[in-house]
């Protein structure tokens, strides 16, 4: 195999290794992101609960004001009943008093209903706060584990970068420039093997003349269909 082609095959494999680190890091970081998202959702739920609780408390204040108002009205009507002179006035006063009592009972029932809702909201909030505390402790452990794994990967990536730097320094600049041009669009399939007389980048069959040139390996040959750099993979014995 031509020296430059051999270098490009090696460089392509090194670039593939370097690019493989990003998905590895993303995979390792996924647990941390999931835990952070969970805490974020818990915070949203807690904020919504606080808003609901505040709204219920405001409703209770309004209902207590109504209760005070209706109670005062009933007392006032009770005082008026002593000054009633006719049956018609007595009946009118009785109707007004009954309505006020019904409104008072409804307001008291509403307070009971709101108290139950408030109790449920407060209990749910307590559960969420306990869950949040647990998740925050858990996330600290996840962070330590993730940082440790990423540190190891970064060291490995740096070793491969150093290997690439040494190799690139030894490659002809025109050859390197051509490789980078192909890699810009082909990514990690800039240099591909030929198997069963087909380019393993576009999987199209290549012509006999091109195939013979690839087998010889004396020069850099590109796929006539897609433009990727081709090489003949060594047969495994």
From TrEMBL:
<dbReference type="Pfam" id="PF02591">
    <property type="entry name" value="Zn_ribbon_9"/>
</dbReference>
<feature type="domain" description="C4-type zinc ribbon">
    <location>
        <begin position="198"/>
        <end position="230"/>
    </location>
</feature>
<dbReference type="InterPro" id="IPR052376">
    <property type="entry name" value="Oxidative_Scav/Glycosyltrans"/>
</dbReference>
<keyword id="KW-0175">Coiled coil</keyword>
<feature type="coiled-coil region">
    <location>
        <begin position="83"/>
        <end position="163"/>
    </location>
</feature>
<protein>
    <recommendedName>
        <fullName>C4-type zinc ribbon domain-containing protein</fullName>
    </recommendedName>
</protein>
<feature type="coiled-coil region">
    <location>
        <begin position="25"/>
        <end position="59"/>
    </location>
</feature>
<dbReference type="InterPro" id="IPR003743">
    <property type="entry name" value="Zf-RING_7"/>
</dbReference>
């Amino acid at each position: 195999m031509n020296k430059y082609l051999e270098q490009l095959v090696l460089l392509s494999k090194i670039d593939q290794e370097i690019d493989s680190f990003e998905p590895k890091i993303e995979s390792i970081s996924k647990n941390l992101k999931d835990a952070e998202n969970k805490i974020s959702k818990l915070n949203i739920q807690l904020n919504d609960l606080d808003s609901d609780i505040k709204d219920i408390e405001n409703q209770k204040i309004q209902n207590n004001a109504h209760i005070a108002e209706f109670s005062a009205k009933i007392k006032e009507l009770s005082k008026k009943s002593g000054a009633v002179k006719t049956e018609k006035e007595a009946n009118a006063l009785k109707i007004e008093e009954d309505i006020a009592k019904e409104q008072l009972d409804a307001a008291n029932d509403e307070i009971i209903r709101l108290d139950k809702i408030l109790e449920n909201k407060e209990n749910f909030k307590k559960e969420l706060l306990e869950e949040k505390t647990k998740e925050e402790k858990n996330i600290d452990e996840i962070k330590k584990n993730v940082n440790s794994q990423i540190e190891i990967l970064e060291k490995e990536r740096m070793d491969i970068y150093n290997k690439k730097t040494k190799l690139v320094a030894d490659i002809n600049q025109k050859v390197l420039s051509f490789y980078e041009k192909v890699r810009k669009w082909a990514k990690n399939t800039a240099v591909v093997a030929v198997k069963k007389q087909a380019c393993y980048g576009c999987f199209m069959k290549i012509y006999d003349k091109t195939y013979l040139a690839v087998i010889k390996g004396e020069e850099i040959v590109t796929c006539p269909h897609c433009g990727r750099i081709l090489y003949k993979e060594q047969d495994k014995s």
